[in-house]
Amino acid sequence: MSRSRKDTKDGKDSKNEVKDVSDLSNKDLKDVFTSLIENLDFSVNGKLKKIQDKLDKVDESMKILKKELSDVQLTIEDQDLRITDLESLKTEHFDPQCKRTSELEETLKELQVYILHQENRSRKYNLLFYGLPKIEKTTSHSA
Q: 28-45: buried (b, 16+ CB within 10 Å) or exposed (e) per residue?
């Protein structure tokens, strides 16, 4: 490009010609840099778009996880309430029943001992001896 200008111009304007070449060089550099910046801007915007899409997906996943966590927390709170209710029912009903059962077991043992004692007393007077003649009881009034 600069050659064609040199060919058309006199040797007098060689200083202007260099100035024109440097102007063209600056303009070319400006165009190159502008093009590079546009390409870089396009590339960065594309990558930023991809990153934004991924962030949106992560944000959506976080919202879902937060909802699931909230549901789990509500379930745990519900289970805690149910456990507390069951423990209070145990305290109110089961513990007194266990105490009553223990008392009844102790009474049963006492009654079993008493029955065994009564059976032993009854048997003491009902002894049978085989091979001995039976003697009739006589009262002291008849003698």
A: eeeeeeeeeeeeeeeeee
